[in-house]
Write a structure and sequence with these properties.
heterotrimer; A alpha/beta (233); B mainly alpha (327); C mainly alpha (286); A: Rossmann fold; four-stranded antiparallel β-sheet; 10 helices; 36% helix; globular; C: 286 residues; ABC_transp_permease (chain B); branched-chain amino acid transmembrane transporter activity (chain B); transmembrane (chain B); membrane (chain B); transmembrane helix (chain B)
Chain lengths: 233, 327, 286
């Protein structure tokens, strides 16, 4: 396997019950590469992340991480292989404390220090149940929890949802810093164009369960109108 | 031409076999079978509550036992103020009302509001069985541990007089008639609008409530109906057996009924009824030769069926045939 | 009976019931499995002590062997039977019900249907508030308290417990964080079985050891977790205190039958008035 590929998805078909949402999707992500996934509602972005994470079983196609098949593995094996997941709606453990949430990101960690370095505001509330945090802080917690185990690939689903714009920027910068320093790849599903463009080196557009186009991040930042052309498909 | 459902054909076939049986079977077997038919009635009651309405009862023996004791106390002239009343017919009415009302009351306590989680309803009924058994053992008026002895057989007269029904063959046909009528009646009820509402409720109670059904009242009524049928079974058992004991009302019969229904198939009343008769026949065959190993074998088969054949053995067979026929 | 003795016996019953209910509750909380064979795990614990005694081993060796032995039975049962029914809640009841029948019948085959007695270790008696009280019963209370405290420490002071609480709250998310939920299920079931085994072993000298020994504990333990409320670990303890206390008290002033009836009626009233239990807590359905 070439050094240039971390995640390689080929011909992926997946969905819920009888209905398929992904129809033969292909996507590759390089090591340390930040990719944004865009497209209208219902084109299968969240389904793609869930399938990569093992929460949905693919009906066809392959998913490889560093050349090794991970499709069909249970989520915990995929997590241990180096993929972390921040789901839509964050899903922090509301009744557990901030610190406990962070430790759950890496049960082998000596302490939750890594999480607090990333988002120092969490340290002040370490003993509080996560359910009492604001939406933005819960999002920070979910991201910090995902980063505890030093993943090679982070799957992020709509992190800006319900979060103040100023906090979104702060989160994006913190994430970009970690990704650059540790060579962590990111697959970001995002409707918020500012956030997507701030983070992504490449933007992939999806429609009806497939990848239909892609653009370099620099080209889009230079000419944001190109974005509209893809999204008004 | 109207095409029949497989399960109805199986039911008619079983009925035909049973109708013809007294012509070839020895009379002791016919007598045993008459008694098994009252167990089948209990299994049908449980399959209705559990399979059709999703109300898993681990204490259905309670209603069977109440029916038996009700029949016994009345026909033995034990009811205070009603000592002169000895009618089998009133005994049947008393048994059905007492057991149905008990089931309704249990439903009133457990189905209120959001109600108990289906599984915990099962636990409450299990507790009920344990409590009622203890109660029967310690209630001297009901004969305590010994139970009620010498319960009279069915008498055809209006008040315990007239001809007695104890010959195996007529008893068998009476029992068969009651069972067939009950299965037919409950099946028709299951396929009626209200029965379909109950099935919808079993699948998704929240949705049924959103559609405007008073699910608590529906479940209460269905459980009362099931309890009444179990009470009828108990009453018809005791007039054959002549003896009502605490074992009928408690844990062990409840457990057995559950096994019959799970092995036969809870999805269809006919499967449950066929299952219990087959199992009782096997039971009389093997319980003496295998002794204590037999319950172990039954337990293992039961576990295997729960895991591998949730439709039950008869139910799975019916399902496969139905799929072949496309009906 | 002397008041002090009465209270101590009541405390004894409550503590054992707490231990039994706790095992049931952690298995249900984590795995959503209603384990009707829990009473039989208790019964097995008592038989382990009996068997150890018959093999000439000292009582305390039997007591120490019982929890791991029963936990092992639980581990096997989980692997062979219970895990195949996880997605069907009502079927977990049936499967464990079948297991309970098989375990009871196995006890009949090995030791006969009759009851056996285990001689309690001779620890003498102490005088408490003017009446003598057997030391062994005090030891049973200490064992229960220690085991309850240890279970709490396991769930609230260790990483295993943290992972378990995460699975209780949100199984899918916990799995996405790298927690092997299968392994956790297996060990939780074993711990639950072990707790029941310990309760049975400690109670063995105080009860008639027979195949039906577990049944009498199963129903009160379930009523305790129904009354106390599910989804929290404190609920079953509160429920057990209520159920066990009421039972002992009524049994002392009236009779065991009235006690059973009173407990059942009280439990069903609580269920009617507060269907989520006394210590209600939100549970995430996921």
């Amino acid at each position: 396997m070439a050094d240039g590929t971390l995640l390689e998805i080929a011909g992926l078909t997946a969905g819920y019950g009888g209905g398929m949402v992904l129809h033969g999707l292909d996507l590759t992500v390089g090591p340390g590469e930040p990719v944004a996934l865009m497209g209208r509602n219902g084109v299968g972005k969240t389904t793609l992340l869930k399938t990569v994470m093992g929460l949905l079983r693919p009906r066809g196609g392959t998913i490889r991480l560093d050349g090794a098949r991970i499709d069909g593995l249970p989520p915990f094996r995929i997590a241990r292989a180096g993929i972390a997941y921040v789901p839509q709606g964050r899903e922090v453990f509301a009744d557990l404390t901030v610190e406990e949430n962070l430790i759950l990101g890496d049960l082998a960690a000596a302490d939750a220090g890594r999480g607090y370095e990333l988002f120092p505001a969490l340290a002040e509330r370490r003993r509080e149940p996560a359910g009492r945090l604001s939406g933005g802080q819960q999002q920070q917690l979910a991201i910090a929890r995902a980063l505890m185990a030093r993943p090679r690939l982070l799957l992020l689903d709509e992190p800006s949802e319900g979060v103040q714009p100023s906090v979104v920027i702060e989160m994006a910068d913190a994430l970009a810093a970690v990704a650059a320093a540790e060579g962590m790849a990111v697959v970001l599903v995002e409707q918020n164009v500012d956030l997507a463009l701030r983070l992504a080196g490449r933007v992939v557009f999806m429609d009806r369960g497939r990848v239909v186009a892609e653009e370099g991040g620099d080209a889009l930042r230079a000419d944001p109108s190109r974005l509209d052309a893809h999204l008004v498909l | 031409m109207r095409s029949w459902r497989t399960v109805d054909l199986v039911g008619l076939l079983a009925l035909a076999v049973l109708l013809a049986l007294p012509a070839v079977a020895p009379s002791w077997l016919v007598g045993d079978l008459a008694m098994y038919l009252s167990y089948a009635l209990l299994a049908v009651a449980l399959a209705f509550a559990w399979g059709h309405c999703g109300l898993l009862s681990l204490g259905h023996g309670v209603f069977f036992g109440i029916g038996a004791y009700a029949m016994g106390t009345l026909t033995l002239g034990m009811l205070p103020g009603l000592e002169a009343v000895r009618s089998t017919w009133l005994g049947l009415v008393f048994a059905v009302i007492a057991s149905g009302a008990t089931a309704w009351t249990i439903g009133w306590f457990t189905f209120a509001g959001r109600g108990l989680h289906g599984a915990f309803f099962g636990i409450v009924t299990l507790a009920l069985a344990v409590v009622f058994e203890r109660l029967a053992i310690n209630w001297d008026w009901l004969g305590g541990l010994n139970g009620l002895m010498n319960v009279p057989p069915i008498t055809l007269g209006p008040n315990g007089d007239g001809a007695e029904l104890w010959e195996p063959v007529p008893l068998f046909y009476v029992m068969l008639g009651v069972l067939a009528a009950t299965v037919a009646g409950l099946t028709a009820y299951q396929r009626s609008d209200r029965g379909l509402a109950l099935a919808a409720l079993r699948e998704n109670e929240l949705r049924a409530r959103a559609l405007g059904y008073d699910t608590g009242a529906l479940k209460r009524r269905a459980f009362a109906l099931s309890g009444a049928v179990a009470g009828l079974a108990g009453a018809l058992f005791v007039v054959q057996f002549g003896f009502a004991s605490p074992a009928l009302i408690g844990f062990s019969l409840s457990a057995e009924a559950l096994i019959w229904v799970a092995l036969g198939g809870r999805g269809e009343l006919v499967s449950a009824a066929v299952g219990v008769i087959a199992l009782r026949l096997l039971d009389s065959q093997f319980s003496s030769s295998l002794e204590a190993w037999w319950p172990l074998v039954v337990g293992l088969i039961f576990m295997a069926v729960v895991v591998l054949l949730p439709r039950g053995i008869v139910g799975e067979a019916v399902y496969r045939i139905a799929r072949q026929r496309g009906r | 009976m002397h008041l002090a003795t009465l209270l101590l016996d009541g405390a004894n019953a409550v503590l054992i019931l707490m231990l039994v209910a706790l095992g049931l509750a952690i298995v249900f909380g984590l795995m959503n499995v209603i384990n009707l064979a829990h009473g039989e795990f208790l019964m097995l614990g008592a038989y382990v002590v009996l068997a150890a005694g018959q093999a000439g081993l000292p009582f305390w060796v039997g007591l120490a062997l019982a929890p791991p032995a029963v936990a092992l039975v639980g581990l096997v049962a989980e692997e062979v039977l219970v895990r195949h029914t996880y997605t069907r809640l009502l079927d977990t009841i049936l499967a464990t019900w079948g297991l309970s029948l098989v375990l009871r019948q196995a006890a009949v085959l090995l030791y006969g249907p009759g009851s056996h007695s285990v001689v309690p270790p001779d620890l003498g008696a102490v005088t408490i508030a003017g009446s003598p009280y057997p030391v062994y019963r005090l030891v049973v209370m200490a064992i229960s308290l220690t085991a309850i405290a240890a279970t709490f420490a396991l769930f609230f002071r260790t990483r295993f417990g943290l992972a378990a609480r995460a699975v209780i709250a949100n199984r899918a998310m916990a799995s996405c964080l790298g927690i092997d939920t299968r392994r956790l299920d297996r060990w939780t079931f074993a711990v639950g079985a072990g707790l029941a085994g310990l309760a049975g072993a400690a109670m063995a000298p105080l009860i008639a050891v027979d195949p039906q020994a577990g049944l009498g504990w199963l129903v009160p333990a379930f009523l305790a977790i129904l009354v106390g409320g599910l989804g929290s670990i404190a609920g079953p303890l509160v429920g057990a205190a209520g159920i066990g206390g009421l039972d002992s008290l009524t049994a002392a002033v009236a009779s065991p039958v009235w006690a059973q009836l009173a407990v059942f009626v009280a439990a069903i009233l609580v269920i009617r008035l507060r269907p989520t239990g006394l210590i209600a807590r939100r549970r995430r359905e996921s």
